[in-house]
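ok so i was messing around last nite and threw this chain in just to see what happens. nothing serious, just curious
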Amino acid sequence: MLKKLMIYTLCIAMLLSNIAYAENAAENTPISTNSIELNAAFKEMLKILPSVKAADILSLAKNYYSISNTKIEEAAKSEYKRIVNWTPNFSGTKTNAKKAQEASDAAALAVSYTNAKNFYLAMASAAFSLDPKSVTGAGNFASAAASYYDDLVLEGKKEKNMEKYYLDAIKIYNYGLQISIRDGKFSKDALSLLVSLGNIYLDTGKKDKAYTCFKMAMAMEKGYWPARKAMYNYYMSEKKFDEALKLIMEESEYPIFVKATSKVSKIKEEEDKKNPIPQGEAADEVMEKYLDNLVIVDAISQADFLEEIDKEAQAKLKALLKEVQSRMKYTAPDISMIAQYSSLKNISTPEGRVTLQAFNSGIKSYSYRAEYLGEKSYVDSLNDFGYETDLGGYNTQQEFETAMAGNPDFHLDINIDWTGDVDAQLEAFVAELEKNAAQYKEDPSKGEDLFKTISKVQPEKAVFALNPFFYSNPLDIYIQKLNMADFEKKFMPYEQYLIKITHKNSKMVSDAIRDGNERTGRLLDDIIRMEQEIEGEEQRHYIVHMGLVPEYNRTNEVLWNQITQLALDNYTKKTKKYVEKMYNDCMKHVILISDEKIQKMLEERVIALALRSISTALTDVYNAYSFGDYSPPQECGCDEKAMAAARAAREKAENAAHNELIKKNMEAKEKFESGELDENSAYYKKIIKPYEVKVTSPFFEGMVGPYKSGWKFNMGGLDFGKMQQHIRNSTTYDGGIEIKLVGGEAGNFEGGLSVFGRFNATKTEGKSLSMSDIDITGGAKADLAAPGLISATAGASVSSVRGSKVFGSFGFTGDNLLSDDIKTYLGNWKPDLTIKEWNGEYEIE
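result:
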């Protein structure tokens, strides 16, 4: 399971392409390199780059402005008037580069963030008219024209020659590339245009030209993630799967979340190598070694993905988790109250017997609680199969605990009955399971159906059937899958070991008690027989009471010591040790489960296993201490007066001891019901879920919890919150916007900082986005929370980057992608047009 989850990293790496990188040169600076590859790519690009006049593009801008200006969406009119506060002139003679950039930036954001097609097209056209020499302005104008066509198609509109929008966009992109050439080379501003143009070529079937554009972009900057993904889509469309896989797996500059995911993947792979799960019927020593080494398997949280975004936020999250995990400890009962009796003679005293009785009362409370929680954790699954479960009449754990508290006569009676044709339902389930298992074996991409079926009896498995690509917060799902896989990697072996070891130890103790009883029984038979056969009182006293009875007591004492030591060792060295480890190891992951219902169910299973194991082991201790019969020599039957006096003294002592029984019972309750488990549960639920840290970056901000992320776009001065979020446009096809900070605005980043972002449609209104929508690309080593960075358009340049529809058809299909394991996790999944935010629940439709 975990190995396959690691392969899942490949598709997460593509989806979570989120980063930021330092530019090597200021905006509009040509790339200075003598690279043979770069020169060759440039020559090939020139072959497909036509000559386009500025006047022709200005004419297109005038035409598109007239088409869209009078139809600007009602919700966008005030924003448009605020930004375009001049009357556009398309002669190219009246220019204002600063004002043009501001409007072009706004147009790029509107293209990527709204479906207000007339708003962004009018704004992009007007912006271009103010600065026809702007490479970024030309690119944003081209993206607006192409996106206008996309939105018309989405709305079901049909016009004559609709393909003209794409043809015009291609012409505008070519113009932008043409004016970006400085000293015989493309400037950095050409990168987004090359990718956007290549994607339109790919969508319109001109794949050779698309390849040339992508090759040029990658030659200019190998780590430019949009170009690498675009080339991946090209290879997939050409069914060149070897090349596609090689491209993604190459060592390169990766987005920060891709790098973090890769790092997590390697950590998990190393964990598996260092401590592989024992196969088959492993010996106790082998299993114990495995369990002892599980300490290296740590829980995965959002903190593991924040290193290159905000180190301070990461440190806060890690500190919180460390604190909570350190509290997730359970100390099994201290049995000194009974272990203090070091001999059969002592435990046979009235006080010893009362203590033993109180000890047994404590064990019963553990046993009942284990039984209740164990059955409760499976109630929903049983009900789904038509069973009706009566948990003794106690619908909640609080009702159960209240009824059991202080009630020495408490008894738990759980009944499981059926309400329908359970056999038929079970047969149908088994048939479905067998069918999906066979289907999965034949085609690993069908694993989703298999997990859906398994989740009917194990609801926690539903998370493995969730498709992260249908949600705007896929990282949250990835974290859940990792923690569920780690939980199972721990809990199942612990459960297997504890069941086996407690059964084995119980058998050892019961066998020892049986053998001891047989041995002492023979001695007792001899005593009874000799009592009957010897008539002389003096001779009987000498042979039986001075000889056989002391031998009987000595034998009982020796056997009692051996059996009690066996039971104590089994408890302290095996059961107690591994129950405590199991709780701590498993709860590390349970506290990070986002589905409260699943979380509670898993916690109940962990606690039930702990209590059941301890109850079994302590029952062995009780049985061991209850072994044997100590017969005081004076009760030999020879001296009636002495016997009567001894009985009276014992009864007096028993009466006195009985008065101590309540006190002893309270002591036992404190030992067994220390409240640790309940306190732990209340503590982590109070702390983990509501905890959030603020994460800041130049272009986005977020409140991130241990297993939940929430992000907002942070671009001062621009407000598109009143408009419906984009459903399909350049962003759907994995395009988006590229924002560059240059000069002093880039703070501690030499040369500049660039962010590539894309926005997904979510159910939430307003400026919300997923962390998977931000590509802070390129490999900057500095902390993104560095002071001096701004969150506004001042000093920034924003470019709209178009994606390819081919991404929707071929991206993540896994079709013939070499590895069955990769297929298993990619399946036939592809980006969904109505992406929504995952609410953290393990429910599947």
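not much to say yet. DSSP finds 31 helices and 13 strands in the chain.
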